[in-house]
Specification:
Rossmann fold; Tetracycline Repressor, domain 2
Length: 471
């Protein structure tokens, strides 16, 4: 756009153009986190018109967790705006977003002379935006950068029409971004947390603990339960990301998640999440009623965690430990196997330790008075989390040692002495994970770190070998 006359304003759209997201959907999820009935309220607000809906949602969102300062900016578009302003041209932010959001973005960036936006009565989109810009500057007397089919009327009225998306009608110029985009498969794999599916292997614990691994039907039921958990968990991960957009963008690594970075459209992610949850629950109930009920309960607890509990210190890690344990419960009910109280107690302590380990990794990076974004902790809580987490690991090992010494172990295992070697390896692994966490040498998620850690894989192999030798 170098050489453009200075009397030609540069007009820029907001959603999908200046920012790599949709502020209406951002507002919706930020407000929904504080009002569980918001989807129903939104349905009735639609009867008042989209402009009124945007005004109400933006008002609710800006009073909650919707943070303008963390919105992902398209740096290429921003650079174009600043270049135009440096040339002496008028710069305009023209958007269908509500004026409160548009003004807040303009204030943050400090590079716009005018802001045109929806005002609660008029939805400034498509033909309405075109009419507004023609009335202000005249037809073919402004340049416009947009991204969607709703911008086609505006592009037709502009002197120079520019797009930042794959929507490129005839005569519209593409503004290439300097950011190298990842493949769609890589982005969706990251959003669905495919790597996290390793956690769902816990559903197989009951199959082996009950010595039912020679039964084809038991394998079939357990595998179906595993698939159901993978689908449901991916759907829940997406919902968590939708509700955590602002806090994720303040996190050193979570800011690169697809939704936080604006790599995937929020409504698309919402639809996929609903399909995954419905499909996963359908498979679960197909296995049997109790598996379906267990995974449905898992979803309900996750909803409580996402909407409220994750911001309450101690309660959050307690729920995380319970969610891990529910995977083992689902595996047990899938094959109608009784759940050993020893296994249950060991699971609770072991998973509580891992949940606290996950928090410890974040807290050990903070200054004493610094708050952990989106959670109810500060840096001062690191000592408590470290001590209690290490104590939970010791409690898990103690429960396992009591089980090995109890008569029940000799009934299921002919050479129970090998279990003591397995116990030693588990103790070593837990100690090492906490050691690495306190040194800041572990990833944000200890379970995922273990899947890439050669020592952890060696420990898994040794434990499995010990249990085989004991059988």
């Amino acid at each position: 756009m170098t050489g453009t006359p200075i009397n030609i304003p540069l007009v820029v759209d907001l959603d999908g153009t200046l920012v790599r997201t949709d502020t209406l959907w951002e507002s919706f999820f930020a407000a929904w986190a504080n009002d569980v009935w918001l989807p129903i309220t939104t349905f009735f607000l639609l009867f008042k018109g989209r402009a009124a809906l945007k005004r109400e949602l933006s008002s609710l969102a800006l009073d909650s967790r919707f943070t303008i300062d963390t919105l992902p900016i398209n740096e290429t578009v921003l650079a174009s705006v600043r270049e135009a302003r440096a040339q002496g041209r008028t710069t305009v932010l023209a958007t269908a977003a509500d004026a409160s959001v548009a003004q807040a973005v303009a204030k943050r960036l400090e590079c716009f002379d005018h802001v045109f936006a929806s005002d609660g009565a008029l939805n400034l989109k498509g033909n309405n935006k075109t009419a507004k810009l023609i009335a202000e500057f005249g037809e073919k007397r402004f340049d416009y950068i947009g991204d969607s089919r709703a911008d086609i009327p505006v592009w037709r009225a502009a002197r120079e029409a520019i797009t930042v998306s794959n929507v490129q009608p005839s005569g519209v110029v593409r503004l290439d971004s300097a950011i190298e985009k990842a493949s769609a498969i890589a982005v969706w794999t990251k959003l669905l947390r495919v790597r996290h599916w390793i956690k769902n292997v816990l559903v197989f614990v009951a199959l082996f603990a009950a010595h039912r691994f020679t039964e084809p039907l038991a394998w079939q039921q357990t595998i179906a339960t595993f698939i159901a958990f993978c689908a449901v968990c991916s759907g829940i991960y997406i919902f968590n990301d939708l509700f955590d957009l602002s806090s994720d963008r303040s996190h050193p690594s979570k800011q690169f998640r697809p939704l936080a970075a604006g790599s995937i459209a929020l409504p698309t992610a919402l639809i996929v999440a609903i399909i995954l949850l419905a499909g996963g629950l359908g498979i679960a109930f197909k296995v049997n009623l109790w598996v379906g009920a267990t995974i449905l309960f898992y979803c309900a607890v996750n909803a409580i965690y996402t909407l409220h509990a994750k911001r309450v210190a101690v309660l959050d890690v307690s729920i995380l430990a319970g969610l891990y344990t529910l995977r083992i419960v689902a595996g047990a009910v899938a094959i109608s196997a009784p759940l050993s109280p020893w296994l249950f107690a060991f699971s609770v302590f072991a998973f509580l330790s891992l949940a606290l380990l996950k928090r410890a990794i974040d807290l050990n990076r903070l200054a004493p008075d610094e708050k952990l974004s989106g959670r109810g902790y500060t840096g001062r809580d690191a000592i408590f989390v470290n001590v209690f987490g290490a104590g939970s690991a010791i409690a898990a090992v103690l429960v396992l040692s009591l089980y090995i010494a109890a008569p029940q172990a000799t009934v299921l295992y002919r050479n129970a002495v090998w279990l003591w070697f397995a116990l030693a390896v588990i103790l070593f692994w837990l100690m090492r994970m906490w050691y690495l966490a306190m040194r800041g040498a572990s990833d944000d998620d200890p379970v995922l770190f273990a899947t890439r850690d050669a020592t952890s894989w060696a420990c898994v192999a040794l434990v499995a070998a010990c249990f085989v030798a004991a059988t």
